[in-house]
Amino acid sequence: MKLSLYQRLSISLLALFAVIALGFYLWSDTLKTQLRFEAQQRLHLSLAANLARDNPLLQQGEYDFKALQNLFHTLMVLGPAFEFYFVAPDGAILAHSADESRIHRQSIDIRPINLLTQNQAALPIFGDDPRHTNRKKIFSAAPVFNGVTLQGYLYVIVAGERYETILDRTNTSKEMQVYLAFSGIALIMLLVLMLGLFRFFTHPIRRLADEMKRFRSSGFEQNQMQLYPWPQHDHNEVNQLGNLFNQMVAKINRQFDQLNHNEKNRRELLTHISHDLRTPLANMQGYLETLSLNHALSEAQKQEFLQIALTNAKQLNCLIEQLFELAHLEAGQVSVNLEHFNLTELLYDVSDKFKLSASNKNILINVRPEFGHFMVHSDIGKIERVITNLLDNALRHTPANGEIELSIIEVDEYTLQVAIRDNGTGIRKEELSYIFDARYRASNASEDCKKHNGLGLTICKRLLEILNNDINVTSELGQGTRFFFNLRRN
Protein backbone atom coordinates (compact mmCIF):
# COMPACT_ATOMS: atom_id res chain seq x y z
CA MET A 1 0.00 0.00 0.00
CA LYS A 2 1.40 3.37 -1.02
CA LEU A 3 1.21 6.04 1.67
CA SER A 4 1.01 9.76 0.99
CA LEU A 5 3.50 12.24 2.46
CA TYR A 6 0.86 13.31 4.95
CA GLN A 7 0.35 9.71 6.14
CA ARG A 8 4.08 8.97 6.31
CA LEU A 9 4.71 12.11 8.37
CA SER A 10 1.89 11.23 10.78
CA ILE A 11 3.08 7.65 11.30
CA SER A 12 6.70 8.76 11.69
CA LEU A 13 5.82 11.36 14.30
CA LEU A 14 3.66 8.94 16.27
CA ALA A 15 6.47 6.39 16.29
CA LEU A 16 8.94 9.06 17.36
CA PHE A 17 6.63 10.20 20.14
CA ALA A 18 6.22 6.61 21.37
CA VAL A 19 10.02 6.16 21.50
CA ILE A 20 10.47 9.48 23.31
CA ALA A 21 7.66 8.62 25.75
CA LEU A 22 9.24 5.23 26.48
CA GLY A 23 12.65 6.82 26.99
CA PHE A 24 11.18 9.47 29.27
CA TYR A 25 9.36 6.80 31.27
CA LEU A 26 12.52 4.74 31.74
CA TRP A 27 14.56 7.82 32.67
CA SER A 28 11.95 9.11 35.10
CA ASP A 29 11.56 5.64 36.65
CA THR A 30 15.32 5.38 37.14
CA LEU A 31 15.48 8.88 38.62
CA LYS A 32 12.52 8.15 40.90
CA THR A 33 14.14 4.94 42.12
CA GLN A 34 17.43 6.74 42.81
CA LEU A 35 15.63 9.45 44.74
CA ARG A 36 13.67 6.85 46.72
CA PHE A 37 16.88 4.99 47.56
CA GLU A 38 18.57 8.21 48.68
CA ALA A 39 15.60 9.21 50.83
CA GLN A 40 15.33 5.75 52.46
CA GLN A 41 19.04 5.54 53.15
CA ARG A 42 19.19 9.08 54.55
CA LEU A 43 16.13 8.34 56.73
CA HIS A 44 17.71 5.15 58.18
CA LEU A 45 21.30 6.37 58.20
CA SER A 46 21.59 6.14 62.04
CA LEU A 47 19.52 2.95 62.40
CA ALA A 48 22.48 0.59 62.73
CA ALA A 49 24.36 2.94 65.08
CA ASN A 50 21.36 3.21 67.43
CA LEU A 51 20.87 -0.59 67.48
CA ALA A 52 24.55 -1.19 68.15
CA ARG A 53 24.63 1.35 71.00
CA ASP A 54 21.42 0.28 72.72
CA ASN A 55 21.66 -3.52 72.44
CA PRO A 56 23.67 -5.30 75.22
CA LEU A 57 24.38 -8.32 73.02
CA LEU A 58 26.44 -6.14 70.73
CA GLN A 59 28.45 -4.51 73.51
CA GLN A 60 30.07 -7.65 74.96
CA GLY A 61 33.42 -8.79 73.76
CA GLU A 62 32.53 -12.39 72.91
CA TYR A 63 29.31 -12.85 70.99
CA ASP A 64 26.58 -15.46 71.24
CA PHE A 65 25.86 -15.69 67.53
CA LYS A 66 22.78 -17.82 68.20
CA ALA A 67 21.36 -15.15 70.47
CA LEU A 68 22.30 -12.47 67.86
CA GLN A 69 20.50 -14.42 65.19
CA ASN A 70 17.36 -14.63 67.35
CA LEU A 71 17.64 -10.90 68.01
CA PHE A 72 17.93 -10.14 64.31
CA HIS A 73 14.96 -12.36 63.55
CA THR A 74 12.87 -10.55 66.19
CA LEU A 75 13.89 -7.18 64.74
CA MET A 76 12.99 -8.31 61.22
CA VAL A 77 9.53 -9.41 62.44
CA LEU A 78 9.05 -5.94 63.86
CA GLY A 79 10.43 -4.32 60.70
CA PRO A 80 9.82 -6.59 57.68
CA ALA A 81 11.48 -4.07 55.36
CA PHE A 82 14.89 -4.64 57.04
CA GLU A 83 17.48 -7.43 56.94
CA PHE A 84 20.10 -7.60 59.73
CA TYR A 85 23.65 -8.91 59.47
CA PHE A 86 26.67 -8.88 61.74
CA VAL A 87 29.89 -9.03 59.75
CA ALA A 88 33.51 -9.35 60.76
CA PRO A 89 36.00 -6.54 60.08
CA ASP A 90 37.07 -8.43 56.92
CA GLY A 91 33.47 -8.71 55.67
CA ALA A 92 32.69 -12.30 56.68
CA ILE A 93 29.04 -12.76 57.70
CA LEU A 94 28.92 -13.94 61.32
CA ALA A 95 25.17 -13.73 62.08
CA HIS A 96 22.03 -12.85 60.10
CA SER A 97 18.26 -12.68 60.35
CA ALA A 98 17.43 -14.68 57.24
CA ASP A 99 16.90 -18.37 56.65
CA GLU A 100 20.25 -20.04 55.98
CA SER A 101 19.03 -21.33 52.62
CA ARG A 102 18.42 -17.76 51.42
CA ILE A 103 22.01 -16.63 52.00
CA HIS A 104 24.14 -16.76 48.83
CA ARG A 105 27.23 -14.93 50.08
CA GLN A 106 29.47 -15.80 53.01
CA SER A 107 31.16 -12.40 52.93
CA ILE A 108 30.53 -8.94 51.61
CA ASP A 109 32.70 -6.08 50.35
CA ILE A 110 33.63 -3.88 53.30
CA ARG A 111 34.49 -0.76 51.19
CA PRO A 112 30.89 0.57 50.83
CA ILE A 113 30.53 0.27 54.64
CA ASN A 114 33.64 2.40 55.15
CA LEU A 115 32.37 4.97 52.62
CA LEU A 116 29.07 5.26 54.48
CA THR A 117 30.38 5.29 58.05
CA GLN A 118 33.15 7.80 57.19
CA ASN A 119 30.92 10.06 54.98
CA GLN A 120 33.26 9.70 52.01
CA ALA A 121 30.63 9.47 49.23
CA ALA A 122 27.28 10.97 48.26
CA LEU A 123 24.10 9.04 48.91
CA PRO A 124 22.81 6.61 47.86
CA ILE A 125 25.62 4.15 48.54
CA PHE A 126 24.98 0.54 47.57
CA GLY A 127 26.40 -2.47 49.31
CA ASP A 128 26.40 -6.22 48.64
CA ASP A 129 23.13 -8.11 49.15
CA PRO A 130 23.94 -11.43 50.92
CA ARG A 131 20.78 -12.94 49.43
CA HIS A 132 22.08 -12.51 45.89
CA THR A 133 25.39 -13.20 44.22
CA ASN A 134 25.75 -9.83 42.48
CA ARG A 135 22.85 -7.60 43.56
CA LYS A 136 23.42 -4.30 45.41
CA LYS A 137 21.15 -2.73 48.03
CA ILE A 138 21.05 0.44 50.12
CA PHE A 139 21.99 -0.15 53.74
CA SER A 140 22.70 1.28 57.16
CA ALA A 141 25.88 0.27 58.96
CA ALA A 142 27.75 0.98 62.19
CA PRO A 143 31.03 -0.31 63.62
CA VAL A 144 30.88 -2.35 66.84
CA PHE A 145 33.76 -1.89 69.31
CA ASN A 146 34.84 -3.65 72.49
CA GLY A 147 36.72 -0.88 74.13
CA VAL A 148 38.97 0.30 71.33
CA THR A 149 38.98 -2.98 69.46
CA LEU A 150 36.82 -3.24 66.33
CA GLN A 151 34.66 -6.34 66.70
CA GLY A 152 32.76 -6.02 63.41
CA TYR A 153 29.89 -4.14 61.79
CA LEU A 154 26.15 -4.15 62.18
CA TYR A 155 24.98 -4.24 58.57
CA VAL A 156 21.27 -3.52 57.93
CA ILE A 157 19.73 -3.83 54.47
CA VAL A 158 17.15 -0.99 54.45
CA ALA A 159 14.90 -2.18 51.63
CA GLY A 160 14.85 -5.89 52.04
CA GLU A 161 13.78 -8.57 49.60
CA ARG A 162 10.21 -8.85 50.95
CA TYR A 163 9.80 -5.08 50.88
CA GLU A 164 11.11 -4.85 47.28
CA THR A 165 8.85 -7.69 46.11
CA ILE A 166 5.68 -6.16 47.56
CA LEU A 167 6.66 -2.65 46.38
CA ASP A 168 7.41 -3.83 42.87
CA ARG A 169 4.07 -5.57 42.56
CA THR A 170 2.15 -2.54 43.79
CA ASN A 171 4.14 0.05 41.86
CA THR A 172 4.22 -1.95 38.65
CA SER A 173 0.46 -2.29 38.56
CA LYS A 174 -0.32 1.31 39.44
CA GLU A 175 2.48 2.91 37.41
CA MET A 176 1.59 0.86 34.37
CA GLN A 177 -2.01 1.99 34.58
CA VAL A 178 -0.97 5.64 35.00
CA TYR A 179 1.58 5.37 32.23
CA LEU A 180 -0.82 3.70 29.82
CA ALA A 181 -3.53 6.25 30.58
CA PHE A 182 -1.13 9.16 30.17
CA SER A 183 0.35 7.72 26.99
CA GLY A 184 -3.08 7.01 25.50
CA ILE A 185 -4.39 10.52 26.20
CA ALA A 186 -1.16 12.11 24.99
CA LEU A 187 -1.13 10.02 21.80
CA ILE A 188 -4.74 10.88 20.99
CA MET A 189 -4.13 14.59 21.57
CA LEU A 190 -0.92 14.46 19.58
CA LEU A 191 -2.61 12.58 16.76
CA VAL A 192 -5.40 15.15 16.48
CA LEU A 193 -2.96 18.05 16.68
CA MET A 194 -0.45 16.58 14.24
CA LEU A 195 -3.11 15.56 11.75
CA GLY A 196 -4.32 19.15 11.70
CA LEU A 197 -0.81 20.58 11.47
CA PHE A 198 0.30 18.13 8.79
CA ARG A 199 -2.83 18.78 6.76
CA PHE A 200 -2.10 22.50 7.00
CA PHE A 201 1.56 22.13 6.01
CA THR A 202 1.11 19.47 3.31
CA HIS A 203 -1.93 21.04 1.65
CA PRO A 204 0.21 23.30 -0.62
CA ILE A 205 2.35 20.31 -1.58
CA ARG A 206 -0.75 18.28 -2.50
CA ARG A 207 -2.05 21.24 -4.49
CA LEU A 208 1.26 21.52 -6.36
CA ALA A 209 1.30 17.77 -7.04
CA ASP A 210 -2.29 17.96 -8.35
CA GLU A 211 -1.32 20.84 -10.64
CA MET A 212 1.59 18.84 -12.02
CA LYS A 213 -0.69 15.88 -12.72
CA ARG A 214 -3.26 18.13 -14.43
CA PHE A 215 -0.48 19.73 -16.47
CA ARG A 216 0.65 16.30 -17.61
CA SER A 217 -2.93 15.24 -18.37
CA SER A 218 -3.46 18.39 -20.45
CA GLY A 219 -0.63 17.36 -22.75
CA PHE A 220 1.64 20.04 -21.25
CA GLU A 221 -0.59 22.77 -22.68
CA GLN A 222 -0.94 25.74 -20.35
CA ASN A 223 -4.05 27.04 -22.11
CA GLN A 224 -5.84 23.81 -21.21
CA MET A 225 -5.70 24.51 -17.46
CA GLN A 226 -5.81 27.37 -14.96
CA LEU A 227 -2.65 27.61 -12.86
CA TYR A 228 -2.97 28.44 -9.18
CA PRO A 229 -1.70 31.99 -8.40
CA TRP A 230 0.96 31.21 -5.81
CA PRO A 231 1.89 34.13 -3.48
CA GLN A 232 4.75 36.20 -4.81
CA HIS A 233 7.88 37.12 -2.80
CA ASP A 234 7.00 34.60 -0.10
CA HIS A 235 9.61 32.95 2.14
CA ASN A 236 7.60 29.72 2.22
CA GLU A 237 9.57 27.15 0.22
CA VAL A 238 6.41 25.49 -1.14
CA ASN A 239 5.11 28.82 -2.45
CA GLN A 240 8.50 29.48 -4.00
CA LEU A 241 8.38 26.05 -5.60
CA GLY A 242 4.87 26.76 -6.90
CA ASN A 243 6.03 30.03 -8.47
CA LEU A 244 8.98 28.25 -10.06
CA PHE A 245 6.58 25.62 -11.44
CA ASN A 246 4.37 28.34 -12.95
CA GLN A 247 7.43 29.98 -14.51
CA MET A 248 8.58 26.62 -15.84
CA VAL A 249 5.14 25.95 -17.36
CA ALA A 250 5.14 29.39 -18.98
CA LYS A 251 8.63 28.86 -20.38
CA ILE A 252 7.80 25.37 -21.68
CA ASN A 253 4.75 26.75 -23.47
CA ARG A 254 6.78 29.62 -24.91
CA GLN A 255 9.30 27.11 -26.16
CA PHE A 256 6.51 24.98 -27.63
CA ASP A 257 5.10 28.06 -29.35
CA GLN A 258 8.56 28.99 -30.61
CA LEU A 259 9.15 25.46 -31.86
CA ASN A 260 5.82 25.48 -33.66
CA HIS A 261 6.59 28.92 -35.07
CA ASN A 262 10.06 27.79 -36.17
CA GLU A 263 8.62 24.65 -37.72
CA LYS A 264 6.09 26.73 -39.63
CA ASN A 265 8.85 29.10 -40.78
CA ARG A 266 11.00 26.15 -41.76
CA ARG A 267 8.28 24.65 -43.93
CA GLU A 268 7.59 28.01 -45.57
CA LEU A 269 11.29 28.62 -46.07
CA LEU A 270 11.70 25.21 -47.67
CA THR A 271 8.82 26.02 -49.99
CA HIS A 272 10.36 29.34 -51.07
CA ILE A 273 13.89 27.95 -51.26
CA SER A 274 12.68 25.01 -53.33
CA HIS A 275 11.17 27.45 -55.80
CA ASP A 276 14.36 29.54 -55.92
CA LEU A 277 16.46 26.42 -56.41
CA ARG A 278 14.15 25.05 -59.05
CA THR A 279 14.14 28.24 -61.16
CA PRO A 280 17.89 28.52 -61.98
CA LEU A 281 18.18 24.75 -62.16
CA ALA A 282 15.33 24.53 -64.69
CA ASN A 283 16.78 27.42 -66.74
CA MET A 284 20.23 25.88 -66.77
CA GLN A 285 18.81 22.46 -67.71
CA GLY A 286 16.71 24.01 -70.54
CA TYR A 287 19.62 25.82 -72.14
CA LEU A 288 21.95 22.82 -71.84
CA GLU A 289 19.33 20.52 -73.41
CA THR A 290 18.92 23.01 -76.27
CA LEU A 291 22.67 23.00 -76.83
CA SER A 292 22.71 19.21 -76.71
CA LEU A 293 19.78 18.63 -79.10
CA ASN A 294 20.04 21.55 -81.55
CA HIS A 295 23.20 21.26 -83.60
CA ALA A 296 22.16 24.02 -86.01
CA LEU A 297 22.89 26.80 -83.54
CA SER A 298 25.46 29.35 -84.48
CA GLU A 299 28.61 29.81 -82.47
CA ALA A 300 27.28 33.10 -81.06
CA GLN A 301 24.03 31.45 -79.93
CA LYS A 302 25.95 28.62 -78.32
CA GLN A 303 28.10 31.11 -76.36
CA GLU A 304 25.00 33.03 -75.32
CA PHE A 305 23.25 29.87 -74.10
CA LEU A 306 26.37 28.74 -72.25
CA GLN A 307 26.70 32.15 -70.61
CA ILE A 308 23.08 32.03 -69.46
CA ALA A 309 23.55 28.50 -68.12
CA LEU A 310 26.72 29.61 -66.30
CA THR A 311 24.89 32.57 -64.74
CA ASN A 312 22.17 30.25 -63.46
CA ALA A 313 24.80 27.88 -62.09
CA LYS A 314 26.48 30.76 -60.23
CA GLN A 315 23.11 31.84 -58.87
CA LEU A 316 22.42 28.30 -57.72
CA ASN A 317 25.85 28.08 -56.08
CA CYS A 318 25.33 31.42 -54.28
CA LEU A 319 22.04 30.25 -52.87
CA ILE A 320 23.36 26.88 -51.74
CA GLU A 321 26.39 28.46 -50.02
CA GLN A 322 24.20 30.87 -48.10
CA LEU A 323 21.78 28.10 -47.14
CA PHE A 324 24.68 26.12 -45.68
CA GLU A 325 25.95 29.20 -43.84
CA LEU A 326 22.51 29.97 -42.40
CA ALA A 327 22.00 26.33 -41.34
CA HIS A 328 25.41 26.41 -39.63
CA LEU A 329 24.50 29.57 -37.72
CA GLU A 330 21.07 28.30 -36.71
CA ALA A 331 22.60 25.06 -35.39
CA GLY A 332 24.59 27.08 -32.83
CA GLN A 333 27.88 25.48 -33.85
CA VAL A 334 29.71 28.80 -34.21
CA SER A 335 32.64 29.77 -32.02
CA VAL A 336 33.36 33.38 -31.08
CA ASN A 337 36.96 34.63 -31.24
CA LEU A 338 37.15 38.06 -29.64
CA GLU A 339 40.12 40.30 -30.34
CA HIS A 340 41.12 43.96 -30.61
CA PHE A 341 41.29 45.43 -34.13
CA ASN A 342 41.18 48.75 -35.98
CA LEU A 343 37.69 49.28 -37.35
CA THR A 344 38.77 51.88 -39.93
CA GLU A 345 41.24 49.45 -41.48
CA LEU A 346 38.54 46.78 -41.67
CA LEU A 347 36.16 49.13 -43.53
CA TYR A 348 38.87 49.93 -46.08
CA ASP A 349 39.68 46.23 -46.52
CA VAL A 350 36.03 45.36 -47.21
CA SER A 351 35.51 48.32 -49.59
CA ASP A 352 38.59 47.29 -51.57
CA LYS A 353 36.95 43.92 -52.36
CA PHE A 354 34.09 45.73 -54.12
CA LYS A 355 36.06 48.39 -55.99
CA LEU A 356 35.89 46.58 -59.32
CA SER A 357 32.15 45.86 -59.22
CA ALA A 358 31.49 49.40 -57.94
CA SER A 359 33.57 51.00 -60.74
CA ASN A 360 31.69 48.94 -63.34
CA LYS A 361 28.47 50.66 -62.19
CA ASN A 362 30.28 53.97 -61.60
CA ILE A 363 29.34 53.83 -57.89
CA LEU A 364 31.52 55.68 -55.38
CA ILE A 365 32.33 53.96 -52.06
CA ASN A 366 33.47 56.32 -49.30
CA VAL A 367 34.78 55.57 -45.80
CA ARG A 368 34.02 58.21 -43.14
CA PRO A 369 36.08 59.41 -41.46
CA GLU A 370 38.86 58.82 -43.96
CA PHE A 371 41.45 58.53 -41.24
CA GLY A 372 41.10 57.38 -37.67
CA HIS A 373 42.24 54.91 -35.06
CA PHE A 374 39.02 53.36 -33.80
CA MET A 375 39.84 50.20 -31.84
CA VAL A 376 37.03 47.77 -31.02
CA HIS A 377 36.80 44.42 -29.24
CA SER A 378 34.83 41.80 -31.19
CA ASP A 379 35.10 38.88 -33.64
CA ILE A 380 36.77 40.42 -36.69
CA GLY A 381 35.80 37.54 -38.99
CA LYS A 382 32.09 37.83 -38.23
CA ILE A 383 32.09 41.64 -38.37
CA GLU A 384 33.83 41.49 -41.76
CA ARG A 385 31.17 39.04 -42.99
CA VAL A 386 28.37 41.37 -41.81
CA ILE A 387 29.88 44.45 -43.48
CA THR A 388 30.54 42.46 -46.66
CA ASN A 389 26.91 41.32 -46.86
CA LEU A 390 25.59 44.82 -46.20
CA LEU A 391 27.91 46.43 -48.75
CA ASP A 392 27.03 43.79 -51.34
CA ASN A 393 23.33 44.42 -50.65
CA ALA A 394 23.88 48.19 -51.03
CA LEU A 395 25.67 47.71 -54.39
CA ARG A 396 22.80 45.63 -55.75
CA HIS A 397 20.22 48.28 -54.87
CA THR A 398 22.19 51.37 -55.83
CA PRO A 399 21.83 52.58 -59.44
CA ALA A 400 24.70 53.71 -61.65
CA ASN A 401 26.47 56.92 -60.61
CA GLY A 402 25.27 56.35 -57.04
CA GLU A 403 27.15 56.60 -53.76
CA ILE A 404 27.70 54.27 -50.79
CA GLU A 405 29.12 55.46 -47.48
CA LEU A 406 30.73 53.34 -44.78
CA SER A 407 30.88 55.45 -41.63
CA ILE A 408 32.02 55.19 -38.01
CA ILE A 409 30.16 57.27 -35.42
CA GLU A 410 31.22 57.73 -31.79
CA VAL A 411 28.10 57.07 -29.70
CA ASP A 412 29.86 57.47 -26.34
CA GLU A 413 33.19 56.68 -24.74
CA TYR A 414 32.37 52.96 -24.75
CA THR A 415 30.46 52.48 -28.02
CA LEU A 416 31.05 52.97 -31.75
CA GLN A 417 28.37 52.76 -34.44
CA VAL A 418 29.04 51.27 -37.88
CA ALA A 419 26.70 52.46 -40.65
CA ILE A 420 26.34 51.45 -44.33
CA ARG A 421 24.27 54.02 -46.25
CA ASP A 422 23.34 54.08 -49.94
CA ASN A 423 21.24 56.38 -52.10
CA GLY A 424 19.55 53.56 -53.99
CA THR A 425 15.99 52.36 -54.39
CA GLY A 426 15.12 52.28 -50.68
CA ILE A 427 12.57 50.05 -48.96
CA ARG A 428 8.91 50.61 -48.21
CA LYS A 429 8.17 51.40 -44.56
CA GLU A 430 5.71 48.52 -44.28
CA GLU A 431 8.48 46.12 -45.39
CA LEU A 432 11.22 47.24 -42.98
CA SER A 433 10.16 44.87 -40.20
CA TYR A 434 10.32 41.85 -42.53
CA ILE A 435 13.59 42.31 -44.45
CA PHE A 436 15.61 40.19 -41.97
CA ASP A 437 13.16 37.29 -42.34
CA ALA A 438 14.70 34.45 -44.32
CA ARG A 439 11.38 33.85 -46.09
CA TYR A 440 10.86 37.44 -47.12
CA ARG A 441 11.89 39.02 -50.39
CA ALA A 442 11.42 42.78 -50.58
CA SER A 443 9.73 44.38 -53.54
CA ASN A 444 13.00 46.07 -54.49
CA ALA A 445 14.91 42.78 -54.78
CA SER A 446 17.24 42.74 -57.77
CA GLU A 447 17.29 40.01 -60.36
CA ASP A 448 20.84 38.75 -60.04
CA CYS A 449 22.61 35.87 -58.39
CA LYS A 450 21.61 37.20 -54.99
CA LYS A 451 17.96 36.45 -55.59
CA HIS A 452 17.67 34.32 -52.45
CA ASN A 453 14.81 35.51 -50.25
CA GLY A 454 16.98 37.94 -48.24
CA LEU A 455 19.34 35.33 -46.82
CA GLY A 456 22.21 37.83 -46.76
CA LEU A 457 20.41 40.10 -44.31
CA THR A 458 19.24 37.11 -42.28
CA ILE A 459 22.85 35.95 -41.96
CA CYS A 460 23.92 39.46 -40.86
CA LYS A 461 21.30 39.56 -38.13
CA ARG A 462 22.19 36.07 -36.89
CA LEU A 463 25.93 36.85 -36.81
CA LEU A 464 25.34 40.00 -34.76
CA GLU A 465 23.02 38.12 -32.39
CA ILE A 466 25.83 35.66 -31.73
CA LEU A 467 27.98 38.68 -30.76
CA ASN A 468 25.15 40.02 -28.54
CA ASN A 469 24.54 42.94 -30.89
CA ASP A 470 21.58 44.01 -32.97
CA ILE A 471 21.19 45.52 -36.44
CA ASN A 472 18.83 48.37 -37.31
CA VAL A 473 17.66 49.93 -40.56
CA THR A 474 16.13 53.20 -41.75
CA SER A 475 15.00 53.78 -45.32
CA GLU A 476 12.92 55.99 -47.60
CA LEU A 477 11.61 54.70 -50.89
CA GLY A 478 13.64 56.21 -53.74
CA GLN A 479 16.04 57.94 -51.32
CA GLY A 480 18.21 55.06 -50.10
CA THR A 481 18.74 52.82 -47.08
CA ARG A 482 20.95 52.94 -43.99
CA PHE A 483 21.92 49.84 -41.96
CA PHE A 484 23.74 50.35 -38.65
CA PHE A 485 24.92 48.42 -35.57
CA ASN A 486 27.05 49.12 -32.47
CA LEU A 487 30.38 47.72 -31.31
CA ARG A 488 32.16 47.99 -27.98
CA ARG A 489 35.27 50.11 -27.99
CA ASN A 490 38.58 48.72 -26.82
Layout of SSEs?
Layout: H1 5-43, H2 47-54, H3 65-78, E1 83-87, E2 93-96, H4 111-117, E3 126-128, E4 136-146, E5 149-157, H5 161-217, H6 237-293, H7 299-330, E6 339-342, H8 343-353, H9 355-360, E7 364-368, E8 375-378, H10 380-396, E9 403-410, E10 415-422, H11 455-466, E11 471-476, E12 480-488
Account of the protein in words:
The structure is a single chain. With 490 residues, this protein is of the alpha+beta class. Helix content is 53%, strand content 16%. A hairpin with a 3-residue loop joins strand 11 (471-476) and strand 12 (480-488). The protein has 3 domains: 45-157, 2-Layer Sandwich (Beta-Lactamase); 237-329, Signal transduction histidine kinase, dimerisation/phosphotransfer (DHp) domain (Helix Hairpins, Orthogonal Bundle); 336-488, Histidine kinase-like ATPase, C-terminal domain (Heat Shock Protein 90). Mean pLDDT is 79; it is low at 442-453. The longest helix is centred in the middle third of the chain and has 57 residues, at 161-217. The chain contains 11 helices and 12 strands.
Short overview:
This protein is of the alpha+beta class and 490 residues long. The chain has helices spanning 5-43, 47-54, 65-78, 111-117, 161-217, 237-293, 299-330, 343-353, 355-360, 380-396, 455-466, and strands spanning 83-87, 93-96, 126-128, 136-146, 149-157, 339-342, 364-368, 375-378, 403-410, 415-422, 471-476, 480-488. The relative contact order is 0.06.
